[in-house]
């Protein structure tokens, strides 16, 4: 239920904001250029989503889940949210094995190389271009840094990575940094330290 609610908030926010504009001005080579895309921007705490969606016009979305593994419930929650919003949803899943449970629930299945190989990012970018992917959702810690660093390139392709900044990822992957960050913002947290 919580998953579905969060996804509904994200997708509904996209659908509402996309009505407000269909042009984005950006700087390139010290010149202002106009690009006909549909921008929206939404902040979920430290997560910033900014991308090129056109749900309002084509009423559909293509989502790519990397390292989809056993996340059957996650895919089901996205499908449910899209159905409630009357958005046609195409789900693409990638994994290193055809035996992945969630891969069986995807509309398009793709076996890819392991995350730590050079071929991995090439294969994902090829999928994004081939299927005109709107939203990229990494599902494991292993490729969070990869796609955070590739954010600008993904955005140029019209694909939004649902991922935090490199700084936030680095904090969340370190228990001590997470503890300090929580205290800094007034959250109670179990005392965390490194034994000497």
- The fraction of residues in strands falls at 15-25%
**Counting H and I runs of at least 4 residues, what is the number of helices?**
8
Radius of gyration: 18 Å
Low-confidence stretches: 1-5, 14-57
Structural class, from secondary structure content?
alpha/beta
Oligomer: single chain
Element-by-element helix/strand order: HEEEEHEHEEHEHHEHH
Q: What would the principal axes of the Cα set say about the shape?
A: globular
Number of E strands: 9
Distance between the termini: 43 Å
Q: Helix fraction? A: 25-40%
How would you state the average pLDDT, rounded? 76
Strand order in the sheet with the most strands: 7-6-5-8-9
Task: Provide structural commentary.
Helix content is 39%, strand content 24%. It is built from eight helices and nine strands. It has helices at residues 2-17, 55-58, 72-84, 118-131, 144-149, 151-156, 166-172, 175-184; strands at residues 24-28, 31-35, 39-44, 47-52, 60-66, 88-95, 108-111, 135-138, 160-161. It has a five-stranded parallel β-sheet, with helices on both faces. The protein has a two-stranded antiparallel ribbon with strand order 1-2. A two-stranded antiparallel sheet has the order 3-4. A hairpin with a 2-residue loop joins strand 3 and strand 4 (47-52). The longest helix has 16 residues, at 2-17. The N and C termini lie far apart (43 Å).
Summary?
The longest helix is centred in the first third of the chain and has 16 residues, at 2-17.
Task: List its salient traits.
196 residues; alpha/beta; five-stranded parallel sheet; two-stranded antiparallel sheet; 8 helices; 39% helix; globular; disordered N terminus
């Amino acid at each position: 239920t919580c998953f579905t609610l969060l996804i509904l908030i994200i997708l509904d926010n996209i659908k509402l904001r996309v009505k407000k504009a269909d042009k984005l001005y950006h700087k390139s080579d010290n010149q202002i250029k106009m690009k006909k895309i549909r921008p929206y921007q939404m902040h979920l705490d430290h997560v910033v989503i900014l991308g090129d969606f056109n749900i309002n016009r084509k009423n559909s979305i293509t989502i790519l889940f990397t390292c989809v593994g056993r996340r059957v419930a996650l895919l089901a929650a996205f499908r449910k949210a899209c159905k409630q919003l009357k958005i046609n949803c195409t789900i693409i899943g990638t994994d290193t094995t055809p035996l992945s449970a969630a891969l069986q629930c995807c509309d398009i299945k793709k076996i890819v190389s392991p995350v730590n190989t050079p071929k991995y990012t090439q294969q994902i970018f090829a999928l994004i271009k081939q299927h005109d992917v709107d939203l990229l959702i990494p599902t494991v810690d292993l490729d969070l840094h990869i796609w955070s660093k590739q954010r600008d390139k993904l955005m140029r392709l019209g694909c939004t990575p649902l991922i935090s900044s490199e700084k936030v990822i680095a904090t969340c992957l370190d228990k001590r940094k997470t503890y300090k960050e929580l205290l800094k913002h007034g959250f109670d947290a179990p005392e965390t330290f490194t034994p000497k």
